[in-house]
Give the backbone structure.
Amino acid sequence: MEQPQVAWEDGRLVESRFAATTRKIRFPTGDHDVVEWSGTEPLTVPRHTRVRNVRSYVGVPRAPAGAERAPKAAAPPRPAARSGPVRSATPAVPPRGPRWGPVGPSPEERARARFAVVAEARGPQGGRRVTLTGHDTYGLTGLLIARGAQLLRDGRARAGGALAPAEAFEARRLVEGVAPLLEIAAVDEL
């Protein structure tokens, strides 16, 4: 949360910070407050879309009642990470346990995990909100990489070089290729 981040404002990158701005976004579960965070969109969206402003937001859970009276930590929370020994080959079934570093969620936890991504765009002719929903971010990450490689192999990339996924691939085709782990839940005019 303390790492440097940027936003795209008036056609240029500007410095920003975690929670510099907030807004309310409509998710499938209703309207939720979100805070600005260090997503990649301010760096990637202007590469393939003429836009004036881009910021990334994330939903954060509400603090429990009375949390404002709790003692403050000396420093903001930081993600915890452990690392295990480096191996030259990845086993078919990774070993589990403290010797091997972070274990990650179980297959059952992965299957239960749900998420939604909402993208809103507004311009002189109106606006649109697209909502993607999915589950199992670990499986989705692997499937996105595999589908991207297949599209590259099949000559389906729109350009070459270092590209944002939306620059390289047609969005609907990519999303269809990773269903049911990711699906377009709604497209709404604003």
Observations:
- Confidence is low (pLDDT under 50) at residues 69-93.
- Residues 106-190 form one domain.
- The first helix runs from residue 41 to 48.
- The longest strand covers residues 114-123.
